[in-house]
Design goal:
The structure holds 2 protein chains of 2 kinds. Chain A is mainly alpha-helical. Chain A has helices at about 20-30, 35-60, 75-100, 110-130, 140, 160-190, 195-205, 210-245, 255-285, 290-325, 325-335, 340-355, 360-365, 365-395, 410-430, 440-445. Chain A is built from 16 helices and no strands. Chain B folds into 2 domains: about 5-50 and about 130-175, 2-Layer Sandwich (Alpha-Beta Plaits); about 55-120, no CATH class. Chain B has 5 helices and 4 strands; from the N terminus they run βαβαααβαβ. The longest helix of chain B has 27 residues, at about 55-80. The chains are: A mainly alpha, B alpha+beta. Chains A and B meet through helix 1, helix 6, helix 8 and helix 16 of A and strand 2, helix 3 and helix 4 of B. Chain B: Keywords: Membrane, Transmembrane, Transmembrane helix.
Amino acid sequence: MQVTSSVREPLVTGGKSYHDVTHDVSRHVEAKPNIKWFLAFLTSAGVLALGFIAVAATVWEGIGMWGLNKTVGWAWDITNFVWWVGIGHAGTLISAVLLLFRQKWRTSINRAAEAMTIFAVICAAMFPVLHMGRPWLGAYWALPLPNTFGSLWVNFNSPLLWDVFAISTYFSVSLVFWYIGLIPDFATIRDRATGLRKTIYGALSFGWDGAAKSWMRYESVSLILAGLATPLVLSVHTIVSFDFATSVIPGWHTTIFPPYFVAGAIFSGFAMVLTLMIITRKVYNLEDYITIGHIELMNIVIIITGSIVGIAYITEFFIAWYSGVEAEQYAFINRATGPYWWAYWSMMTCNVISPQLFWFKKIRTSIVATFLLSLVVNIGMWFERFVIIVTSLHRDYLPSSWAMFYPTWADVGVYMFTFGLFFTLFFLFAKFFPVINMAEVKSVLKSSSEKVHK
Amino acid sequence: MEKDTHFILGVYDDEDVLLHAVEKVRGTGVKIHEVYSPYPVHGLEHVLGYKRSRLPIAAFLFGMLGTTLALTMQFYMMRFDWPMIIGGKDYAAFPDFIPVSFELTVLLASFGMVAVFMIVSNLKPWAQPRIFDLRSTDDKHVMAIDIANNSAVQVEEIKEILRSSGATEVNNKSFE
């Protein structure tokens, strides 16, 4: 039994009753989509369709369509891959790590954040798949399948293969975790509906009836899935960072990468959650569920992870100097002062300097400032990956092969395609799925709402 | 159901009232069929006398299976079936096999546990659940009592116990 604290702010404001929670969330699923939704949906579907031209060109002509050259063999593709995977991490952090830490404020944002995780991982997966050049043969290169090329197997010593397992496990487990949470809410919608909607949501709810025994098992499953997803999410970005850290390229060959990448992933993920949630709460009038308190807490996570990332940048520099390895030292001097200095300093400004503004309570509780800074963080984190990848490659061991990377229209188009895909999926989710986990919000309501707590 | 089943339903508004009511009803010797809630009520499984779920054990066993399969697969392929020297490493480069083993452990533990959960809770897209009260997925807790299981107690007496335990409504419900 919960004790209401007179000091703590309630998690849900506006004196909502249990029925209000059901109504406020379900009515968006039940209402006919309005013109604003159609405009937003059609815009993102349009971006998706335009971007598809670049995807088709890449598959048809090969990855020569991209701006890669013999020096810079990895550029936007892997930058976008790491960026999208990183964005996905916030969803799992909110739904799993905060569940283990019993942070009840997560209940009203975990559904949308986890949806974001799943869509972001789909977008991320596009890049390695397209980079295969002939994706239809990809299963032979990525999975240990018996084949007719001899019984040559995939290489289990390669971090790229670990990545295949990490990303696909992460996607499947997140999807299952998300869906288990959706089942009781689909049942709520089913029991409010008639006709075709009742049939569809009835099938989606898997015949959930809310029996105490089912809830007991549901809680058990959620807890174990959270316990599994927590090391999983840490392992995923650790393995992503191994793609670089296990190489011998100056600038990549560092042991600091796993924690540094995980912190960066949470940092960019929370920024994306804020971007999406600020819009969603406004459009759906969910200000009582996603309160300023939620925004402030997420901003605090952003200051912490942003500062960890900042320390990692400085540590890398220090270690490059301290190592005494000239190639390593040059890679870092070149990052900050070479031809890509603007990318380096964009990264520094966006990730290390501007998030420090959140130390001011006025700024971290301001919706406009949070929204703008969340965009800045996402731009900064894209530059971080670009800086790590391209500036470490573009001046290699042989000055005669030094080169610059220039993206082609296909590079831009494929990136646009993933944006279109992400937002199309997110808008579909926001229309047809309950954006807030009703059952979990109800379970924390009593300890946090005046009206219910008599 | 081949024969009709008749239930008495006690409808509760508040989770704390419900917890006391369950204790009280069970104290009088009336057997509760099940309690249906819109959200997980902590402690409800204790007052109903349910044993702890064994799903964590299932997860552990499936996880062990995942580890075993992953390590067996990697050692077989890399050491025995097609040995190759990669990066000057041993054929059986055990540390390199850890990431994939970890991922497959998590994958099998999660999927195995969820599959067991689906089966034991009878969750499937074509399931047709018995809904006692539509509001039990909205804002009411519904305690269902099977009349046939409580032939020793009069129906009216059960209703009176429910009312006195704090039920805001007491209804009848029959399934064919």
